[in-house]
Amino acid sequence: MPAVEQQGKSVLLVFVQASSGVDGAASLDAESSKGLIPLLKERAFSGVIKRAQFAIPPLSLMLLASVDVPGVTQEFCDLRFDRLPLERHWDLVGIGVQTGAARPAFELAARFRERGTKVVLGGPYVTIFPERCREHADVLVTGEADDLWKELLEDLRDGSLKPEYRQAEFPDLSLERPVRKSMLDIGSYFTTNVVQTTRGCPFSCDFCSVHVMNGHRLRHRPVDAVVREVERFLGEDRRIFFFLDDTVNADDAYARELFSRLAPLKISWVGQATTALGENPALLETFARSGCGALLVGIESLADESNHAHHKFHNPAARQARWIRAIREAGICVYGSFIYGLDGDTMAMASTIEEFIGETGIDVPGINLLRPIPGTGVFDRLASEGRLLQDPDDHEAFRFSWAQEMLYRPRLMSLEEFVPSYTALTSRVFTLGNAVKRALRAPTLRSAVLMFNSLYVYMYGLSRRDLRKQLAGFRKGT
Question: Topology of domain 9-166, per CATH?
Answer without folding.
Answer: Rossmann fold (3.40.50)
